Amino acid sequence: MKPRTLFEKVWDEHVVVQEADRPAVLYIDLHLIHEVTSPQAFTGLRERGIGVRRSDRAIATMDHSTPTLPKSLAVIDDQSKAQLRQLEKNCEEFGIELFGLDSPYNGIVHVIGPERGFTQPGQTIVCGDSHTSTHGAFGALAFGIGTSEVEHVLATQCLLQRKPKTLEVRVDGRLMPGVTAKDIILALCAEIGMDGATGYVIEYTGAAIRGLDMEGRMTVCNMSIEVGARAGMIAPDDVTFEYMKGRDRVPQGAEWDSAVERWRGLQTDEHAKYDKRIVIDASKLEPMITYGTNPGMGMGINGKVPGLDSLDDFSQQVAFEKAMLYMDIEPNEPLLGKKIDVVFIGSCTNSRIGDLRMAASVFSGRKVADGVRTLVVPGSHDIKAQAESEGLDQIFRDAGAEWREPGCSMCIAMNGDNLEPGQYAVSTSNRNFEGRQGKGGRTFLASPLTAAAAAVTGEVTDPRSLLFLLRDKAMARFTTLTSHAVPLTADNVDTDQIIPARFLKVTDKHGLGDSLFCDWRYHEDGSPKEDFVLNHAESQGAQILIAGHNFGSGSSREHAPWALLGWGFRAIISTGFADIFRSNALKNGLLPVEVTPEVHKELMQAVQLDRTTTITVDLLTQSVTGLGSLEATFPIDAFSKHCLLEGIDQLGYLLSFDEQITNYEQQRT
Q: What is the pTM of this model?
């Protein structure tokens, strides 16, 4: 047999009829129903005088129109009441199981399906909701359908479908601390745009995908539709089976063992060919955030909004200009520090217990910023109960956030939760279209960590700055530095000259700035030497030191970068650095910038001639600019660059491996 992909195996298993030049008749294993896209379908059945073919393969819930305020405060408008009553009537008449508002199992449709065990590998699953692709995380072929097709499935348990092409999105490597599954899918959206996977079913593969828990995998598959894909799938494995085991609607006992054995076959065969392939390096990803009016308009949180000149296509340029006008932001500017009004943590993308735990890790011990409204909305009553049993609700309340009842909430502004015109929100939902969260509302999509960080700071914030900046044990982030500079012409400046050995008798790394270049700066009586450059008035406040060749030679003392940082330097420009000094500097957030002798000479002469001359060091682009037309680049290894950009010291990085270290120790014993 020809090697097949995961998608092809599931598709082939469910084709009832395939006539030439006609769409396939595809059998549907599970039909998920909610109040918004189903009433007209049931009306159609009545008009035709037919019933539901397999009511045992359908379940329904109430989620889109339902308010998330406590019942004592909730107000349901007349239209929503009518929708909810109609769903109750339809389910009762046609024998469909309904998780209504009074059910302890009620919740968002794409949350309760996996939660209760309805969602299983190898199934075909549909719902009148575009984010049905969520269930593909289990190795199911799951996709959204329209109301007409809802009627088709109710009547025949089948759909007419043309076979999509296959796209492998391989995510290699390991996510860095503070980077989440949401950042993977937002990065894909930014890379290929809203239509980059139109006509395809995506299979997500690679070490980073395998490293996700099921909640993370659901987040990734959930937003497959945002790149135009028909569905997103991940092959089931032990992570899948462990999540499913014991849930009330999965097989039990011997049937469970048999099912797992069958599901293990749902892997793409060796040598099977995809129609298209995209590869992403997870280790290079950072927290993502959108800036425009569709999920494809996204960037790393430390980046800048692109300019119009970055787009070649005229239609993209028009859409970009329209988005900038709606969002009221400027091209070529960062979003970091952008003031926000509302934070929403919830939706079928990010409302599971792991999402809430992530958010709580940021909220714990902090307060929501003044003037920021924050809603935390669990995806189901099960999740709400679990969060409350863990005390997460109290963390949110203590911080000043609103702890709500389950529902779609602000993801779609039709239930009382919405933005006001002109408000900015950081949201963990899946769409940032114009008016999606309220007429005139402006949405930045992000992960639960990034959303929580925005809530407590009141502005767009890199969450890693809150997660890893442990007191006295981390370093400040380095992105772009513009400053006047201090010229130090001497070559081969060693660490004994940077800070003499007598100052090593300290127990604290702070406060060493006064001892920097001590023997050059001071007379024997402690008075400053007026001719030493650091004592010049023009040197005060400078954050860049232009040093001679081979700076930092000598001993391995880390006191040298501590002293330089203590004085106020953030970057040292030279034609070369001693290896030990370079390593110590990078570990402490001091950037060694190595340039060519020609560039160094031009910088040194310009600064000596005019001490007010400013120089810009941009770590993102690894460039040095200034003096009009001067632009030079400098080398730095990828890991050190990442740590500097994110303000993660190496201890903070090592601490992120605590679980793996513990597992290793247990294996050795």
A: 0.74
